[in-house]
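User: Fold this; tokens only.

Assistant: Input:
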Amino acid sequence: MESALVVSVAGAWGLSEMFGWPHSTNEPPGRGNTKFYASYTLAHIAGALLVIFSVDPVQVAVDVEILNAMLLPLVLGCLLALETPSPTSSAPADHCAPSSPASASS
């Protein structure tokens, strides 16, 4: 039961990030985060409808894992493309490292 809550809030959070919607679980619904809570609620409704209409949950889990395996190379390729700096980039390799005070003043 807990995993259903975690998956639905993660999906709603991901949709909100993708579309730029305000999202916070610290604020009650209606404070600008209506789309976040609507997608969260719709995820639960969709899950309930799957159970009500007698879809075999084991077969759904197997189908999802097969889809995961098929999409993994595509997702991994996109992540590697984002991680690899372009040849024309002049950014240093470690652009996340904080700069030292001596180099910032020069």
